[in-house]
Structure formats: structure tokens, C-alpha cells
Input
Amino acid sequence: MAAQANGQTGNGGKGNKTVVILLGVIIVLLVGVIGVFGAMLIKSNKANVEKQEKRNVVVSQNNAEEVAEELIQEQYVEPGYYNAQMTMEWHFATGDAESDNAVVVNDSSNTNDVYFDVFLAEDESTPILQSPVIPRGGELNNIKLDTPLGAGKYDCVMIYHLVDENQDTVSTLRVGFTIVVEQ
Output
């Protein structure tokens, strides 16, 4: 019986060594994974802090050249953001006259040239106005509808098309506004 007890103890010892080694490997892997995720989190936080620091820079005569150089060195930002500037209620004396107040501006701070189509809110399949391309810093006024409307107040949708240098649409922007035809 003593021989059997020694045999059982020997097998149990090898099994315990295997379990201990396996646990050791798992612990090492967990520490490695936690280390990698921690490094990624620290890098992400550092990038966010750098962005916030740049945002809080006040440009003065003393640092203008330095700030300009930093801006030149920054990575290119994909076009597609747009600051819409337009009259929100267009007035027309008659349905085929030029508006006396309609203006659409493509702010010089925008990244793209733009054109737009105007639709009646209840029918977005047929445009009542299609604009030419408005370059950055340009504006369109003396606006006349392509499709004359009768007297009344119309809910409309303007769909801006931000275009690249080949005049291919990069993205679109929808804006609701009102057209008023007096007679």
C-alpha cells in the first residue's frame, strides 16, 4: 500500500505543477493585456489634452508666427463641414419675380464650394430652384425661382451639396425655410 500512496502523491504533484504553470502563464498574459490597454488609454488622453491645449491658444502679435507654423504643420482635415448662412424666410412680390431679401452665403471659413436645390416640403422630387456653384467666400442674391409659385406661404427644404474641386458631391446638408409669395 505504501507504494500506491507514493504513486498517487507523485501524480498529484505533477498535476499541481501543471496547474501552477498554467496559472502563471494566464497571469502574465493578463498583465500584458492590461499593460497594452493602459498604454493606449494614456496615449488617447495625451492626444485629447494636446487638442485642448491648442484650442485654448490666444493669438497675439508675440506668438502669431509660432501659431501659424503649428497650423501649417497640422494634418489635413477632410472637407465636409459647412457653416450655412442664409435668409430663413424669402419674400417674392410675385411668383416669377426676384426676391427682395433672399441671400445664401458660402462663408470663407467653409472647406467646400457649394450649390443647392430648393424643394417644396411636400414634394422633394421636383426642385423649384437649382443654384449655380457658390465658391467659398461668395454669395447668391437676386434669387429668382425656376418654377414660379402662386401667392401664399410655402414650407421648403434646401439641400446644400458640398462639392470638391471636380464639383462632385462630398456631402449634403438639409435646411428647412419658408418662401412667401405676395401676389
Observations:
- The first strand starts at residue 84 and ends at 86.
